[in-house]
Amino acid sequence: MSPQKLDSLVIPDANLTCDEHAFKSVHVLSREPLVVYIEGFLEEKEATEVVELSDPLFQPSTIWSSGEERLDTKIRHSSKAPVPRSHTVQCIESRARAFQGWRPFVFVEKLWAQRYGPSGHYTYHYDWTSASRTQGRISSFMVWLGSDCTGGGTHFPRIKRPEGEEWCRFMECNGESGEDKEGVVFKPVRGNAVYWENMRPDGTGYDESWHAGLPVLTGEKIGLNIWSWYQEGYVPPKEQEQGARLEHES
Questions:
Q1: Where does the Prolyl 4-hydroxylase alpha subunit domain lie (predicted)?
Q2: What is the pTM of this model?
Q3: Which helix (H) or strand (E) holds 87?
Q4: How many whole angstroms separate alpha carbon 143 and alpha carbon 146?
Q5: Are 155 and 181 in contact (CB under 8 A)?
Q6: For residues 24 and 122, is the Cβ–Cβ distance under 8 A?
Q7: What residues contact residue 172 under an 8 Å CB cut-off, 6+ apart?
Q8: Which distant-in-sequence residues (6+ apart) come within 8 Å of 191 by Cβ?
């Protein structure tokens, strides 16, 4: 694992204490790949705090191509900000890790906020471009911090749209944005989130996880990316020290 990737991972704090948090509801959209919609992933005050922390740090979003970072607003037109790790943010990180069942060798990456104004978008892409059997971005959350906008849905064209109108609270139905797109378009709803898995157990990526942030038509959308990285066999230094101490004492 590269030093740059190592620096991007959140090492869990064994002494972190957080208030209890109950999701409003949880809905499984797909089982292969696993896609779950979460109502109330964030409380109102948590969303507000993350926006306030991120606000002075926004800068134009970049893309990576052939190992180089560059600006290309045709592909990605937004601003991004690293989210300072306040106590609230650390509890959000912990919540994301717990939602996945505290899987071995899976670490939440440091959080990033994304801001999209009118015409802001991110074209179709995968989160798992470097997936392998031993490492890769195993899962993603898209969390909405601000949804005072029209347009700006998150589109998964390769995931089958569910039948029934129950899902229309969370996704576009009957071409309500002016275009009936194939697959699933999740509406931006402040505090809610979509979780999906990017990689199969054999380390290959799911083609169905191909997605895009559709253009914002009016207003502003603010999102929070929570990515989790799998690194086979990696034990953080603090846990290594604790394990060695316990072994010595026994």
A1: 33-229
A2: 0.92
A3: helix 87-99
A4: 9
A5: yes
A6: no
A7: 153, 181, 185, 187
A8: 39, 40, 41, 42, 43, 44, 47, 143, 144
